[in-house]
Structure formats: C-alpha cells, structure tokens
Specification:
By secondary structure, the chain is an alpha/beta fold. It has two domains: about 5-50 and about 300-395, Aspartate Aminotransferase, domain 1 (Alpha-Beta Complex); about 50-295, Aspartate Aminotransferase, domain 2. The chain contains twelve helices and 15 strands. The strands form four sheets. The chain has a seven-stranded mixed β-sheet, sandwiched between helices. A four-stranded antiparallel β-sheet has the order 11-12-15-14. It has a two-stranded parallel sheet with strand order 1-13. The longest helix has 28 residues, at about 290-320.
Length: about 400
C-alpha cells in the first residue's frame, strides 16, 4: 500500500481565509441582501493599468502571427524581462547579473518551490505573526519550525539574539500581516546573523512598493553582506495588480553558497527540471510594468490604496486604538479594543456593521488580540467601513 505524505495530518484543519469565507457565507445566508465591506483578504480591487493591458494585447497578437509566435519560454525567464529586472535593481544602486534574476509565476508559488533548495533536516524560523503559508509549507515538508514571537513591545520587529538558531529564516518587510517595516540597522542584524551562522534568509519583498520612508530598505540587497546569505522573492500582485495574472521575480545571487553547493546553479537546475517557464504573454505584460509609463500608472493605483490606509488610520487615531502599519505598507495591524479576542472582534464587526477583516490569531498565537485590515478595497467601501467602525466603537 502506498504511504502518503503523513505531514499533511499535522496541518491545521482548514486555512485561515477559508474559515473567514465560511463565516461570511453563513452570515449572508441569514441576512440576504446585506452588503459586506471587505477589508480582509489582501486581493486588489483595481484593474491592471493601461500600459500592461496594451502589452498583453500586443503579446496575444504576436501569438497569432507565425513570425512573432512564441512557444516554450526559457525556464528561468525571458532574457528581455530578466534584463529589465536587473536594470530595475540597478536604478536602486544594486548591481545584479541578469542570470541572478529569475521570473516566477508569483511570490506565493515561489515561496513554496524555493524550499526544494534545502534539505528536510534544515530548521525554518518564522517570525510571527506570519503569513500562514510560511508555516504550512514547512509542515508539509516535515521540517522543524522555530516560532519567533514578536509583539507590541518591539513593534513586531524582533532581531536575533544569542538564543536564536535557524537554517532558513523568513523575513517579510513590509510585513504581512503587521505592516511593520525593518529599519536598515534592524535588517542588518539579521544579515549579520545569517552570515555568521550559515543561515539563508528568504526575504519576502512583495510589498516594497508601498514604502514611503526612503530611510527604510526596499530590498535586502541594500544591506552589506546580503548577497552571501539571502534570496529575495518579489511579486507584481500588489505592486501592479497581477493577483489574477500571476507573475513575480526572484533574486538568487551567485555568491550564495552553502556546503559547497551554489544555490543559483541549483535553482537553474530546479527550474529547468520542474517548469516550462512563464508564458510569453504574461512576461510581456510584466515588462510593461517597468516602463516609465507603467511605473507612473501603477503608482497612481498604489496611491489609491495608500489613501485607503489613511482613511482607516484617521478613524483609528480618533478612536485611540493602537496600530502599526499603514504608512509604509498596505496592511494595518490593530489591537482589538476592550480586551476582545481576535475572532470575537471579527464576529462583532461582521454582525454589527458588516465589516470583514482578518483575525490576528490566524497568523500565529501571538496574533491573538490583534486584527488586520487590508487597504486593497474600493475607496467607497473603505470610507463607509471606516465610518461604521468609528460610529460603532464610539458607542461601545
């Protein structure tokens, strides 16, 4: 009899956002016709910008023309897009070789696939509260997971100490769910720790485009020594609205080696074995993001989401509720008022004012008592949700 991967039995019964969806579904069945103000799951609400749409249409037309038709694409990414990504980093004064840049089908996929580079004996450190997939992917792989709790006392930005140990280190900055962003000095401590201990940092930079404060690092490769200890995984989902289109990129420096193995070479071998590359159409659309016009247009959309954040933050400020995030990230992480638990606050908002957020407990035990709002909704719904929130909590 075949033995399945028994590590699946160690996963939680159901996924956080599935639970939320089921609660909302049950509410709507009892209250048909009610409008739900969704500030929960981090999906964008604005369409792809015109520059991207134009490029996608042109690429579709190419596929109908014998001379311009493209079949299988290079597994590691089209040379034209890899060069564009390298130039994008060069504009940040980060020098990368073109073949250190890999095109992916999105950060979520890559964060799971990248674990192929590491033996199952490697431990994984997850700073919590954390994106649930970090934990689940390693549970499935049967790895030891080290949960590093963070909290209000350190702004949800812990740094390593003499008791810290780990082979793989997950860092997301700006963070999902807390919206907190590591300073250069804080992030440098993690880079120094990884180099000293032979660890590898998986740096999730999916939200770097939301950083306003230019004293904060957008890329881990702005830090000294990062090329010998870090992999950076990026996404066009929240930057350019590619949540339903699926495109991202990953940087693995050639200087990153462990135990005589070069991780850049390993990833080339992995991709050429396990993928047939991302479609030509999507890569042409992705290339348009990095044009001057594409950058201008996506910035307009990002500013709409950032204004949503301001609307929510203004409401929380008036209510005197503690929170972090918002200014440099598309997420706002707040302390539940009146000592309420995370799921208790979720149910309260859903039933009283039809506002849906994300319970902090779903991001790890230390998220209990906290709550996440996403700023990716429509401006109209966000304003109404903030108004309802203010009115409800002012009464309580």
């Amino acid at each position: 009899m075949i033995t399945p991967n028994m590590n699946y039995a160690n996963l939680k019964d159901s996924y956080l956002f599935f639970n939320i969806a089921q609660k909302v579904k049950a509410y709507l069945e009892k209250n048909p016709g009610k409008h739900i103000y969704r500030l929960g799951i981090g999906d964008v609400s604005l369409p792809l910008c015109d520059a991207v749409i134009k490029a996608l249409h042109e690429a579709v037309d190419d596929q109908a023309n014998k001379e311009r038709f493209h079949g299988y694409m290079p597994e590691c990414g089209a040379p034209f897009l890899r060069e564009i990504i390298a130039n994008f980093y060069a504009d940040k004064d980060i020098k990368l070789d073109v073949d250190e840049c890999f095109v992916s089908s999105g950060a979520s996929d890559e964060l799971g696939d990248i674990l192929d580079l590491f033996d199952r004996s490697c431990s994984a450190l997850v700073i919590e509260p954390a994106y649930p997939a970090y934990v689940d992917a390693n549970v499935i792989a049967g790895r030891e997971i080290i949960h590093l709790a963070s909290g209000k006392e350190n702004g949800f930005l812990p740094v390593p100490d003499e008791n810290t140990r780990a082979d793989i280190i997950y860092i997301c900055s700006p963070n999902n769910p807390t919206g907190a962003v590591f300073s250069r000095s804080q992030l440098q401590k993690w880079v120094d720790f990884a180099n000293k201990n032979g660890s590898v940092i998986l740096f999730d930079a999916a939200y770097e485009a939301y950083i306003e404060d230019e004293s904060l690092p957008h890329s881990i490769f702005e830090l000294e020594g990062a090329k010998t200890c870090a992999i950076e995984i990026c996404s066009l989902s929240k930057t350019a609205g590619f949540t339903g289109t699926r495109l991202g990129y990953t940087v693995i420096p050639k200087a990153l080696e462990r135990n005589g193995m070069n991780l850049n070479d390993m990833w080339v071998r992995n991709r050429t074995t396990k993928t047939n590359g991302v479609s030509y159409i999507l890569q042409k659309g992705g290339a348009a993001v990095f044009t001057p016009e594409g950058q201008r247009q996506i910035r307009e959309n990002i500013n709409i989401y950032k204004n949503n954040a301001k609307v929510i933050m203004e409401a929380l400020d008036k209510l005197g509720i503690w929170y972090c995030g918002g200014k440099n990230a598309p997420y706002i992480w707040l302390q539940c008022p009146n000592g309420m638990g995370s799921w208790e606050f979720f149910d309260y908002l859903l039933n009283e004012i039809q506002v849906v957020g994300t319970p902090g407990q779903g991001f790890g035990a230390c998220g209990e008592g906290y709550f996440r709002f996403s700023t990716f909704g429509s401006p109209e719904d966000t304003k109404e949700a903030a108004r309802r929130l203010s009115e409800l909590l002012e009464r309580k």
